């Protein structure tokens, strides 16, 4: 579990293409300070399992499912990535509850002089995004300032622009998106109730044991 408070900006130092997967090596002196084999580190919002740690760098394997859903499919040596270690039990929840399970990619559209930053998001995710709700962009916990159709805006403070990769984004760049998991659970739990209501309204009968 993560909270979307980026601990440091790391650098991809190696990319190895495997069969239906990729192996990445990332430099992150802070997050590797207490990391070991099997630990979880979020790389630009993607929860990955540490395979090896050496010299301030860690290695992770990225499976095909993750490559298809995230921007890591296009990552290259020298790219900067946001890094966050898994939150310990009893740790501070500085952002919001995040799983590191990316739902899809969005597109950075632009930022105005006040730091208001706009992104495009896939249509199938727009229903989970609400004004003043939470969303993770490249692993950064953000509050939605506005949503219009398939675009949403967030207000980024100078600190966020400085200590995360969001300050380096250019129009057209892909970003990883993770919507609020609570919204997805509510939708799933409500589906059966809504279906029953429609069935009963249309004259169906409900069998009870």
UniProtKB/TrEMBL annotation:
Pfam families assigned: Lum_binding
Pathway the protein takes part in: Cofactor biosynthesis; riboflavin biosynthesis; riboflavin from 2-hydroxy-3-oxobutyl phosphate and 5-amino-6-(D-ribitylamino)uracil: step 2/2
PROSITE patterns: LUMAZINE_BIND
Coiled coil: none
GO biological process: riboflavin biosynthetic process
GO MF annotation terms: riboflavin synthase activity
Annotated catalysed reactions: 2 6,7-dimethyl-8-(1-D-ribityl)lumazine + H(+) = 5-amino-6-(D-ribitylamino)uracil + riboflavin
Highest taxon above the source species: Bacteria
Leader peptide range in chain numbering: none
Listed EC numbers: 2.5.1.9
Keywords: Repeat, Riboflavin biosynthesis, Transferase
Lumazine-binding repeat locations: 1-96, 97-190
Domain named Lumazine-binding: residues: 1-96, 97-190
InterPro entries xref list: ATP_synth_asu-like_sf, Lumazine-bd, Lumazine-bd_dom, Riboflavin_synthase-like_b-brl
Subunit field text: Homotrimer.
Function: Catalyzes the dismutation of two molecules of 6,7-dimethyl-8-ribityllumazine, resulting in the formation of riboflavin and 5-amino-6-(D-ribitylamino)uracil.
Protein name per Swiss-Prot or TrEMBL: Riboflavin synthase
Species this chain originates from: Amycolatopsis vastitatis
